[in-house]
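task queued by scheduler; priority normal; single chain, no ligands, no partner chains; default sampling; output format set to structure tokens
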Amino acid sequence: MTDKIINRFYYFLLGIVICFFTSIDVIAQSELSSSQKIHQNDISYFKTGDRVCFVGNSITNNGEFHHNIFLYHLTRYPEQELAFFNCGISGDKTGGVLARMEDDILINNPTVVVIMLGMNDVNRSLYGLEEASENRKKRMEAAITLYKNNFIEIVNLFLSKNIKVILERPTIYDQTANLETLNHFGVNDALKTCANFIDEVAKEYELSVVDYWTIMNKLNNEMQAKNPSATITSKDRVHPRSTGHLVMAYQFLKAENAPKYVSKVVIEDNKQISKTKSTNCEINYVKKSKNDIVFSVKENALPFPSVPSQKEGLDLVPFNEELNIELLQVVNLSSGSYELTIDGVLIDIFSEVQLNKGINLANYPLTPQYKQALKVREVLEELWKQEAKLRDIKFIEYNKYYKDCPNKENLTKLKPYLESVFSKKYTSSYHHRKLQDYLEYKPNELEIKASLNKLRAKSFDLAKPVNHVFMIKKSKTE
């Protein structure tokens, strides 16, 4: 009986101890909640250290949409240190992806693959304004059937290797714009069939899917309601311009529930830090004098730095409003105009009404944060430039005429053979230009790959957050 009482007393005490430390943990969690990093509550497609292969055709090979996605992730989640790999080949189809699986995609040891295919698989040459014959209709159906079968095989292959798969519904073919380019009418409908199939695959395999077709088709129709010659693609009706690539990045980021805020810095006029409202930043001190407020802030992220070619895209989708708000809010200021300086640099003059409501610093390129983000972008642009050289090498090495080449290891002997074959098989200057690029870049392939690792590491370092000193000061004109 005595032993039972002792045991009960022991477990009673143990329960008290557990409750005590649990309470401390809850209190600690509560204290931390105001300064938690914004992405602890979102649903990012990627985790720290992920190696992400974007697999597709020329639209992926162009890379601009996933360049935007990478730039966003690097500036918003600098500690993630992701590695993105361009695995697009111009003109490629699902069959081509299967053929280059081992030594062009899996060789990168991906933990995540993002797949967009279909533009070439539908066989655009079969479509046109004239009514299709029964034979052509059968060939159209056969092309889509082959696409579906190959796509399933691709997905199963990645999943069998425990690689996370993200699907992308293909971009549009502009069959409605008033353009001089030959119109393969019906291709966009075929791509919608492919897009609907992607939805079925995503549902069956429980995969994430990003819908480019719907948003691009909608925006394209809206543009053409005002101007029949406007297009979200280029004049070839196939390849999105920078505008389209920005829309694609927006859609991808929205699909993964990317956060709206870069950071929220909320300062009370009574020297207090608003712990419940400030987000994704560390406010180190706030000092107030008669005419100014000085505070030190370390934001955990940088704003997304756009470029002029993306202006139209930013007008079409609310990228900055929904994905790029670096909020500064100073409340309870007396009436008047105030100069905002950051690290001694005058950013602009604002009224107390504007500061009370909050201003989006991401709209001000003069801020040190924006300038830091631009430096990150500059490094990535060099990385993308070097990466494009590797894609030019692969473009030739997966060319159907390269496969049967003798002396593949001897570029001196390979050169006259390829030049002879290409001169006979291709009239377009595109393939000849790509061949010359290949002959220039191939000897330096290893050096190019090494440069990518260095540039990636440099971009990680440049994206690290730093401390900044803000000053809100009554304007001299007051």
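post-processing summary
- Residues 386 and 448 are 6 Å apart (CA to CA).
- The chain has two domains: 39-259, 261-372+464-474.
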